[in-house]
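Section 5: illustrative case.
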């Protein structure tokens, strides 16, 4: 603490400061009042602390955002890699498993005996079909005649022995995709196959 200084008297010591009654005499020699330095220092310290905290929080937030962005980016890359790997595996599996080849269609048997019957009122249908079978070696025609009825609508290749199923299907295919069916009642004709010509053949 500073000691009080003694100054020699001067002409102002007798005059009241301010010239008013009750004013202090010799006030000009009083020690100057201390400034509010402590308050200012505290204010500066508080502001500095707030700025520091704000900077730390900002850096933490930026770091967190960067971490989240990096994690999301890594997840996207992992998903893309997994999808590409799955597609590659699927492609490899597809390449390793070729599609099965279709079964070959049965070939006609030129030695199969054939009966050709006309199931319509149109003359010459059975003879024409018999000639076609013979000319193309689709079978051995042994009999050409009329069917039991003349109202047959659809041409068919009929077999009465299950062993002739493939031969019947092959002959039906080359005759234009007609149907083939099993029927024991045609066994009396004594041939491997019976072609019953229907009205559909008459319009061809």
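Designed sequence:
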């Amino acid at each position: 603490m500073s000691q009080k200084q003694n100054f020699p008297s001067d002409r102002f010591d007798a005059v009241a400061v301010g010239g008013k009654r009750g004013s202090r005499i010799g006030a000009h020699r009083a020690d100057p009042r201390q400034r509010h330095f402590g308050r200012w220092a505290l204010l500066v310290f508080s502001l500095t602390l707030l700025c520091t905290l704000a900077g730390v929080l900002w850096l933490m937030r930026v770091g967190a955002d960067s971490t989240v962005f990096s994690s999301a980016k890594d997840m996207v890359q992992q998903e893309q890699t997994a999808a590409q790997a799955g597609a590659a595996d699927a492609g490899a599996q597809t390449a390793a498993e070729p599609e099965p080849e279709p079964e070959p269609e049965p070939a006609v048997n030129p030695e199969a005996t054939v009966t050709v019957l006309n199931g319509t009122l149109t003359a010459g249908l059975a003879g024409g079909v018999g000639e076609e079978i013979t000319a193309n070696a689709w079978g051995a025609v042994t009999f050409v005649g009329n069917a039991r009825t003349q109202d047959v609508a659809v041409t068919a290749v009929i077999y009465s022995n299950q062993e002739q199923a493939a031969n019947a299907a092959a002959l039906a295919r080359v005759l234009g995709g007609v149907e083939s069916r099993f029927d024991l009642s045609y066994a009396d004709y004594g041939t491997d196959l019976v072609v019953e010509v229907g009205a559909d053949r008459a319009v061809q």
